[in-house]
Amino acid sequence: MPSLSTQFVGILVWTLTYSQSVLAMPTSFEKRQSETVPPYVLSYAPKVWLHPQDQSFPSDIGAQLVHTKPEVNFKVVDGAPDPLTLDNLASLNALGGSNVYLTSVDDVSKNPAWLKGVKPDGNGKTNGATTAAVIVNDRGSGNVDAYYMYFYANNPGPIVLGQEVGKHVGDWEHNMIRFKQGVPQAIWYSQHSYGQAFTYAAVEKQGQRPVAYSAKNTHATYATTGTHDYTIPGVNIPVGPLKDYCDQGILWDPVASAYFYSYSAASNTFKAYDGTSPTSWLDFLGKWGDQEYPDSDPRQKKIFGIDATAKYTSGPTGPQDKSLNRRDVCLPKENRACFVSPFIRP
User: Fold this and answer.
1) 102/99 Cα distance (integer angstroms)
2) How is the chain split into domains, by residue range?
């Protein structure tokens, strides 16, 4: 039988352990929300290699509104605020909602300068431009998902049979890292309509920060350099007609110029960690670019008349539409199971 002193030590250890666990347990969703960005969200934030030949750099989120006007069915929205800003963008939800397109005021076929974005400096910072947003969803019990959202003013699109296809104004891509008790478990790489998931241990890193590769002209995010076929999104078959190209050009550090928010899944609301950054734009349900041009538009071209090969397509939805409270690491997709690969694959 253990001595009284041994029993006392055991009880003391158990009591301290239990007390710490109770103190660490969240009593409500509100109490889980940190008043500052969780330090591990920054410590493990991805760095992004831009392709050396891609001239469409990350872009200031707010500047996109300066160069666009809200339209529904190619007509300017009546009653829209003027000027349109990140603080009032969600007001467009009552004026057309998901049918609103932030349409370029310039002829995009002439490649106006603003579409080129801002080239990161030697430290990876986009000076004078806020080009990313970090959204933190505390799911409770030590489970936290951090979404690293990357914005580009322009998606030039790939070359297929000698023609650009899938060009569009505005481009949102992202990584998501799932944390458990502050330790990264897995990471998602968005690619076109789907993407890939890997364990944190599997991916390339700089120090402890995972690396992403932004594909030339499409900005799809990959875990490796090289050529990636995305004819079947997320599969990356060895050969196919639709290819992304990744390489080490300029290294971009998205969190060096970003907004930071916590997200409440219960109320579908965002809160700026600094208390001052705009939040209205996160609630915007419309598209961040032009509506796909009709066949009658002289700028529009299609290979053999096939709709899927349109030169110009519609702009994307924003962070609100990226499944910020997803069950799995993967973006939810019908009839597709989430596979988190423990090794790097193409």
Assistant:
1) 10
2) 25-341
